[in-house]
Amino acid sequence: MGIAAATNGIRATLAVFGAWAVVSGAAQFAVGLRRRGPELGKQIPTLISGGLSFLVGIFYAAQAAGHKPSLSVLSVYATGGGIFFIVQAGLLAWRARRGTVQPV
After folding, report:
1. What are the distances in angstroms from CA 89 to CA 11, 13, 52, 83, 102?
2. pTM above the 0.85 mark?
3. How far is CA 76 from CA 18, 83, 102, in A?
4. Residue 70 to residue 11: CA distance in whole angstroms
5. pLDDT (tens digit, 9 = 90+) per residue, 32-81?
6. In sequence order, what DSSP letters do the residues of the chain get, joined into one string?
């Protein structure tokens, strides 16, 4: 799907990334909600990242339908997602060393 979108131009690429961001953001947010107890580290970065991904996906879809779509916005999504992932992983590792996070 991604390859087909990439070969069909900027609009198609943004639309696919937007759909991916909405679906993956909603799933990530749902997982964060289910695992937000103190025994699993509260998952605050996961909740924020999932919510932002969902919103960014809507923005990408709107931009794909707009007058001047640009792929430069994709770097912000990738960078932000990576930062939130690293923060969550660091928090979970830190809490695991302290013994406050239960293994899943």
Report:
1. 33, 29, 18, 10, 14
2. no
3. 13, 10, 33
4. 8
5. 888 776 665 577 888 888 999 999 999 999 999 988 888 888 888 888 87
6. -HHHHHHT-HHHHHHHHHHHHHHHHHHHHHHHHHT-SGGGTTTHHHHHHHHHHHHHHHHHHHHHHSSS--GGGHHHHHHHHHHHHHHHHHHHHHHHHHT-S---
